[in-house]
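Entry for the shared binder. Reason: the reviewer on the internal report wants the predicted structure included alongside the sequence.
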Amino acid sequence: MPGRHSTTVIQIDDLTRVALQRWVYRQKTPVGLARRARAMLLLEQGDTYVHTAKYVGLAEYHIRKWVKRFCEYGVSGLCEKPRPGRPPVFAPEVAFHVVKLACERPDHMGSSLSQWDCPELARRLKADGIVPSISADTVERILRSHKLKPWRHHLWLSAKAPRDDHFVHLVQTLVELYTRPLAKEEMVLCLDEKTNLQPRSRLAVTLPTRPGLPTRLEHEYKRAGALHLFAAFDTRTGKVYARTEVRKRQVEFLAFLSQLERELPPASTRVFLVMDNLSVHKGKQVRAWLATHPRFVCHFVPVHCSWMNQVEQWFSIVQRKRLRISDFANLDDLAERLMAFVSEWNAYAHPFNWSTKSAAKVMAKYQAQPRLAPAA
């Protein structure tokens, strides 16, 4: 190999060679360490410093430095030494005050804010005389080291409805309805209403998509009332039964049930209706109607478990595909477009892939909670 050879002879035993080769071919090895390991292997094979430096992408004097360390300390000499870094600017007490503030609500600390952010925390530290000056970036680094993000919030639900045996029974019943094979005379329909759908007629014509331009929608609109969409989703076929109403009362809900009575096949003599606990679904008029139509059997989802009603998934599809751009001439136009969407959906209707795993997390939380000992 042309070039000047080193007077330093590198001798590598089998264990060291295996370690170096592992560093070279392992994908998670840091780039610098992999280069230095490859350089040692090349030099051990007799390559020159010049050729090795060009091959691994290091300067020649860097190669000489790492060869010296390798000869003195072995493979551990190829690892970079810890660096001292910049000396700390702020005392540890500053981090203590930052964390203390971040773990308190601002309105409890005499501030009008609802949540802290880094600029506000930096401003508060200076106002309290903790430090003469501190940047928001420094505050962010302190918070990051303590895994704090006071500018975020998470909604949670208090135990208004206890997760007891009755709750578990309701969940298990619904999961069984969604997953078990149905008899020929059985159907499972999920019912609900999508409320307050506004036409929002735009003051200018909505412009379609063009190359380089998205669909353009006028910001201002005219109000023209609101509409309610009543829908029932067949969990086995995906077919949707729907109607629109201007109001949402027991009268309109009974009209929808009467429509189901007419449209459902007569062979379906046992129809399970899955609904939420809305008073419209449990009123006296509704109970009286159901008493005269025994083929309808009602099941109500547990409180705060509307996600178990499959029609909610279909409503999300309606929102995404039909209602994301709200530009309709009037209520009649909105109702016509919604029913057209239902017809198009039914042309290629499909059920949702519901399994027992859907409620596994809920059941796991119930089983993990402590049980009270029965009274003597």
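Summary line for the report: Confidence is low (pLDDT under 50) at residues 372-376.
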